Amino acid sequence: MGKKTVEITDANFQEIINSDKPVLVDFWAEWCGPCLMLGPTVEELAEEMDGKAIIGKLNVDANPNVTSQFGIRSIPTLLVFKNGQVVGKQVGVVPKATIAKMLEV
User: What does the pLDDT read at residue 1?
Assistant: First the structure.
């Protein structure tokens, strides 16, 4: 079972969100307990949505530009992009079904 999530950074962010597929960005940090709880759920979703959506993780400590651009204050925060625009936002740990529904836009 390989890792299906994409590592998203300040450098590749714009290119990734402009995909023709829906893009889920998980804003997280290594010191954030709830982020670590949500991590396996995001990985599972990446496996299940492979080819249908892009699921990526952005470390807020390593990528301050994108983090501040979207005003991320609490993590984990999940943003869903379609054609480069934010179409969904979820803060905190949520069930996989909730996240999957966000991608159905």
Answer: 43
Per-residue pLDDT, averaged over 64-72, amounts to 97
Class of the domain covering 6-102? alpha beta
Any idea which residue has 């959506």 for tokens?
53
Say how far residue 103 (Cα) sits from the centre of its chain. 11
Amino acid at 20: D
Do residues 53 and 21 touch, judged by C-beta distance below 8 A?
yes
Q: Which residues are catalytic?
A: 32, 35
CA distance linking residue 53 with residue 18, whole number of Å: 12
Write a three-state SS string for 28-86: ECCCCHHHHHHHHHHHHHHHHCECCEEEEEEECCCCHHHHHHCCCCCCCEEEEEECCEE
Domain locations along the chain? 6-102
pLDDT of residue 2: 56
Reported pTM: 0.95
